[in-house]
Design goal:
heterodimer; A: mainly alpha; Rna Polymerase Sigma Factor, Chain: A; globular; B: 192 residues; mainly alpha; 78% helix; elongated
Chain lengths: 185, 192
């Protein structure tokens, strides 16, 4: 039977470096995309990504599995991102959709097997989605990304962000409505 | 409907790309993770050793403290001092109030030439907590009958230890303010 994240983290805290490697492999992709799409620059995202894992490494002795490891990991990520925005004098407030500082939407991954016209439509739809995601207010984008990349529930997102569940539900509802709207064109 | 839309949205979102951190970033993080458990291999045995030493010290200290009350009466030195406090006539030595006795023990011990460890410890303890010792003396004294108190005072008076008798009599009056000392006894306990 596969070890849970929490078991791996405890094993790592007891000195098993291989347990960390498994844990890292499980979560690096989701966390990386969460930070990358949550921040404005790839360089900063990578720096923060590294800092988050360093926090995990440093905190291993204090780790107590009171919540899912993922919730703990994304809580650290949330705090690091908040710290970053504060240092740069940015509030965690809705971003203006027309903000020129908004990150450029990532290029959608194309499905090469599709016929050219359909592929073009799909690419256009994904480009709209990427723009809509980048244009979401920070708090709404964070909630959406925690759900998609971390697989966190409403309650877990609330715990990770320090918001109440109603606020999280509301942010998610707004985010989904805007993103669905982008898909529909 | 909303669920279906959410699923579709999730699928579309995944099509945006599944970026992964660059390999060099992976390598840095994994190297840091490997370096730290190595330190912990030393830290863990050290922590365990520290805990064992601390536990043993605390246990010994607790045992020693627990042993003190029993030893107090039983040490030969203590018995000697008790005998000095209560000379001849009374078959069992009249116990002085505990606080006074403690003072006697601590001050008499060097004169006896060989201070016991228990008395030295108790002296240290009572120096540190005189109020507690006094309170304990009162409690012990209060447990005695007034007649027994007066007998002890009379014995002190007869032995010529008037200052101690005066102090004990004053304490007696504080403890038993309503007790009327019989005339015959008054002649024995009050300073002439």
């Amino acid at each position: 039977m596969e070890a849970t994240d929490e078991q791996l983290m405890l094993a790592y805290a007891a000195g098993d470096a291989a347990a960390f490697e498994t844990l890292y492999a499980r979560h690096k992709g989701g966390l990386y995309r969460f930070v990358l799409r949550g921040m404005k620059e790839r360089g900063i995202a990578e720096e923060l990504f590294q800092e988050i894992w360093m926090r995990v490494i440093e905190a291993r002795a204090r780790y107590a599995p009171q919540a899912r490891f993922t919730t703990w990991l994304y809580t650290i990520a949330h705090h690091r991102m908040i710290d970053h925005w504060r240092k740069r004098g940015l509030a965690v407030a809705p971003l203006d959709p027309g903000d020129p500082d908004d990150p450029a939407p990532p290029e959608p991954a194309a499905d090469r097997a599709r016929e050219p016209q359909r592929q073009a439509e799909t690419n256009e739809q994904l480009a709209r989605l990427a723009r809509a995601l980048a244009a979401l207010p920070v708090a709404q984008r964070e909630v959406f990304l925690m759900r998609e990349e971390g697989g966190l529930s409403i309650a877990e997102i609330a715990a990770a962000t320090g918001a109440n569940e109603e606020a999280v539900k509301s942010r998610l509802r707004y985010a989904l409505a805007k993103l669905r709207g982008a898909l529909d064109g | 409907m909303a669920e279906h839309e959410d699923r579709e949205l999730s699928e579309r979102y995944r099509e945006l790309g599944r970026e992964q951190p660059p390999r060099e970033l992976d390598a840095k993080i994994l190297a840091a993770a490997r370096a730290r458990p190595g330190l912990r291999r030393w830290a863990l045995p050290l922590s365990i050793a520290a805990v064992i030493v601390l536990s043993a010290t605390v246990t010994l200290e607790m045992q020693r403290e627990r042993a003190q009350p029993e030893n107090r009466i039983e040490t030969p030195q203590q018995q000697k001092i008790e005998a000095q406090t209560a000379p001849a006539p009374v078959p069992t030595a009249p116990p002085a109030p505990a606080a006074k006795r403690a003072v006697d023990v601590s001050t008499s011990a060097p004169a006896a030439g060989r201070p016991s460890r228990e008395s030295a410890d108790r002296e240290r303890f009572e120096r540190a907590a005189p109020a507690a010792a006094e309170e304990r003396a009162k409690q012990l004294g209060a447990a005695e009958s007034p007649e027994r108190w007066l007998e002890r005072i009379a014995e002190l008076r007869r032995a010529g230890r008037d200052d101690e008798a005066d102090r004990l009599l004053a304490e007696f009056r504080r403890q038993f303010p309503d007790y009327r000392i019989p005339e015959a006894m008054r002649g024995r306990v009050e300073r002439r």
